[in-house]
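Issue 218. Parser rejects a valid record. Input:
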Amino acid sequence: MKFDIKRSLLPVFALSSLLTVTGCVSHVRTVVKPRQIGVVEEASLDQLIGLINKRYDAIKSVTATVYMQASVGGAHPDQVKDYTSFRAYILIRKPAMLRVLGLVPVVQTHMFDMASDGTTFKLFVPPRNKAITGPDAVTTPSVNALENMRPNLFLEAMLVRGVDHDEFAFMTADTRIQTDPQSKQLIEVPDYNLNVVMASPRPNRGIPERVIHIDRSDLNPYQQDFYNPKGVVETMVTYGAYQDFAGVRFPSVIRITRPLDKYEITITVEKLSINQSLTDDQFDLKIPEGTVVQTLK
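Output the parser choked on:
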């Protein structure tokens, strides 16, 4: 097949003539180019998996004092209800033991107490003399978004889980644009995306179970995306401002976003200790007699 250069240039000539005849005026504009960061780390897929697994395996338990703040979608699409920030204590002992105690602002009495053994959870709300129990995994979603909030959300958010042997992972590279908080200049930050897929055959195979976004300036995770079986993002967790807590690098701000349930929880770490000895009693939540108990499915 012969290539007719004259014919191929006809649309160009036609457009040029049209702009000239109609008197369209053109101007040249300057495009602001983002500044690239100074240090960019290189890592292979095996090195990234090894790094994530090493960090996860090094943590056996977490004891943290934090501030929590929740935002929930309002009655209208453009409304968001923000709840007052409150202090809380979080205990984690791997593989899946969790205790979260929230305090009422100002008076510092118990607002809620939640405990999980990785299979079932208990939630006690003293001001309402009410308790909720149920499985850690949601089997029947509730119309109340906060009732779909389960302990595994905190576990997955606080600790970036390693890649198991029965999971398949692949890596992609990308860049994101940030604004320097001081100079307000745009910065181009390269990153790696570690896509984790269940290896066992299933109807939704090929859909990532989660994606770990890794900043190439220091190879620290800055975001995790968790997908449902339909390939829709169910939970997004972002990590900001890594700080040194007694020799351990840990994010000081953890933001959990649930787009489908329309709520967001921000955890600001005030104090954190790693690998302290935690006993079974510290995860044993006893519900007082006479408490109204609701069972979720």
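Fixed in the parser; the record now loads. The helical segments are 5-22, 45-58, 151-158.
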